[in-house]
Amino acid sequence: MNKIDLDDCPIALAQKILGGKWALRILYNLSTGILRFGELNRQMPELTQATLTKELRRLESFQLINRKVYPEVPPRVEYSLAEMGLKLLPVLRELEIWGDEYKKNTLNNN
Description:
Winged helix-turn-helix transcriptional regulator; WH_DNA-bd_sf; Arc Repressor Mutant, subunit A; globular; transcription; transcription regulation
């Protein structure tokens, strides 16, 4: 079996970065603007705080999101899309359209 070279295959690279179970949902939620950790957590109640923290750190390491910590007590942390995350907005919008169409044409016919 041939190993996929991430330098040669942009789809494999995108899959590696966006392939996490929650990555697209987090990016989609952040597409509406700056959100605090608690706000993100409320929008995805099926996620544990530990999993959300792990996914946010992973997306930050890929430079898709920004994390801003305010020196307050208690600490306030805000998340937003970074420049590379903003470039995903057209893709996220198309996925939203595709998901709606799939749901309408496939799931509702059963």
